[in-house]
């Protein structure tokens, strides 16, 4: 290769990092060079306890031998197979494994390479489903304020984060938003779900139906627990009521379980935790333990079968990716699901949840802490923003945490945590104890 630019291996300028304050980062980079089980290793040789499962994805912990070996073996045996009009066994095996523990009735799988792509796929399935059923007037998509559904155009359109939307033009048309489920100033320090208010919040969907008419609405998409915008736990009854309203009006219900899937709430999916089955379930992250990019969209037989009605030689759904069901990703997915099963990880969160809740709520009363929220093995600590400098206080906690030896995540002035499901009680104590001592030092 010709050396036209003369950059050194240590030059950090070429990589424009995602969702990162690049100029600040490159002055004081935070680098990981290794990982094992619950820990990362930094470039200066320190161990950092992973309080966030990477980016909510490394549910089985890092560099698990079974997953590593499956990837190595697959890469040596069949590296790539065309995703269209050709198959390979592992993609089918993984789909079967997935539907075997998915909520009842979600029996078919479309593959993607990320959460964002899973969201786009789900929205397109929903729109196309109504068309193939002859109900072409249903073109509207309903999301929620403070929803995060990835970064592609469909996802930011139904999503509800202004900073992710405002730079990018008109977005999708025909989109509306329900209110989010968080009530600042009320219900602080609730452990788990709030008891009251769920049905009222869900009934906001009826208001939207009245405004647009049900015959124009294709689907509603929600995260069962909003993760990226600060772990917003819905009140009891909310999702059941949403299911009731969507069913009544023939609107498809999509759960974005990119974070809540694969054991995060102590059940395989949040759908199991809340006892509500959507028509379409969006996954990614934990599907391959975050090791290889892969997502999957699970759809009901009713939806799948509606597409299978035309002439046999015709492609039923004009959508897919070069890497849909990639052999190496499929092998990683299979090894990941086996690891979850062998180690009981999809339900381990339920056993640890009370201990996790006690640990988190022990931080109540520390300086600047205005709310603590938790469910399963997910939690958030909301800090009072410094006047005129939103995000500064939590970000400073994040940097101090990294320097002290724990990885947390911040979104605005909220600290979010979602450790790998293999975390021990002693490591929960270490994570929360260290965070507590950092919170005491914050300006
Ligand atoms: N949906 C949800 C609920 C998410 O939390 C995320 C990622 N945090 C996404 C979609 C997007 O996933 P990805 O970054 O893999 O595209």
TrEMBL record:
The lineage of its organism: Bacteria, Pseudomonadati, Pseudomonadota, Alphaproteobacteria, Hyphomicrobiales. This is Omega amino acid--pyruvate aminotransferase. PROSITE patterns: AA_TRANSFER_CLASS_3. InterPro entries: Aminotrans_3 (IPR005814), Aminotrans_3_PPA_site (IPR049704), PyrdxlP-dep_Trfase (IPR015424), PyrdxlP-dep_Trfase_major (IPR015421), PyrdxlP-dep_Trfase_small (IPR015422). Signal peptide: none annotated. Its cofactor is pyridoxal 5'-phosphate. It comes from the Bacteria. GO terms for biological process: biotin biosynthetic process. Belongs to the class-III pyridoxal-phosphate-dependent aminotransferase family. It comes from Devosia insulae DS-56. One of its GO terms (molecular function) is pyridoxal phosphate binding. Keywords: Aminotransferase, Pyridoxal phosphate, Transferase.
């Amino acid at each position: 290769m010709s050396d036209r630019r003369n950059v050194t291996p240590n030059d950090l300028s070429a990589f424009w990092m995602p969702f990162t304050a690049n100029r600040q980062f490159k002055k004081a980079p935070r680098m990981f060079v290794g990982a094992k089980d619950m820990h990362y290793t930094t470039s200066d040789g320190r161990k950092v306890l992973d309080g966030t499962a990477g980016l909510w994805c490394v549910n089985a912990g890092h560099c698990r031998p079974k997953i590593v070996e499956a990837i190595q073996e697959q890469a040596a045996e069949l590296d790539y197979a065309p995703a269209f009009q050709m198959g390979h066994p592992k993609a089918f095996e993984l789909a079967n494994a997935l539907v075997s523990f998915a909520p009842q009735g979600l029996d078919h799988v479309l593959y993607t390479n990320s959460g964002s792509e899973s969201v786009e796929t789900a929205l397109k399935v929903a729109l196309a489903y109504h068309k193939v059923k002859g109900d072409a007037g249903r073109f509207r998509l309903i999301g929620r304020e403070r929803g995060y559904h990835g970064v592609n155009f469909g996802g930011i359109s139904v999503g509800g984060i202004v900073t992710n939307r405002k730079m990018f033009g008109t977005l999708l048309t025909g989109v509306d938003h329900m209110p989010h489920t968080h009530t600042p100033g009320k219900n602080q320090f609730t452990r788990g779900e709030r008891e009251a208010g769920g049905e009222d919040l869900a009934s906001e969907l009826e208001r939207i139906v009245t405004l647009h008419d049900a015959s124009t609405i294709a689907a509603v998409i929600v995260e069962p627990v909003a993760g990226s915008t600060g772990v917003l736990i819905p009140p009891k009854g909310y999702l059941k009521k949403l299911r009731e309203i969507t069913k009544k009006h023939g609107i498809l219900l999509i759960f974005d379980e990119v974070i809540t899937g694969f054991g995060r709430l102590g059940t395989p999916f949040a759908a199991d935790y809340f006892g509500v089955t959507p028509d379409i379930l969006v996954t990614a992250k934990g599907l391959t333990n975050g090791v290889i990019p892969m997502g999957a969209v699970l759809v009901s037989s009713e939806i799948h079968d509606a597409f299978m009605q035309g002439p046999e030689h015709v492609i039923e759904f004009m959508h897919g990716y070069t890497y849909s069901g990639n052999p190496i990703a499929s092998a990683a997915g299979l090894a990941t699901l086996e690891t979850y099963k062998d180690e009981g990880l999809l339900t381990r969160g339920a056993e640890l949840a009370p201990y996790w809740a006690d640990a988190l709520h022990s931080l109540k009363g520390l300086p600047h802490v205005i709310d603590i929220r938790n469910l399963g093995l997910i939690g958030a600590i909301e800090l009072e923003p410094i006047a005129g400098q939103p995000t500064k206080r939590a970000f400073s906690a994040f940097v101090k945490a990294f320097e002290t030896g724990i990885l947390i995540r911040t979104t605005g002035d909220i600290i979010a945590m979602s450790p790998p499901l293999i975390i021990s009680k002693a490591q929960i104590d270490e994570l929360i104890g260290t965070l507590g001592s950092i919170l005491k030092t914050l300006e």
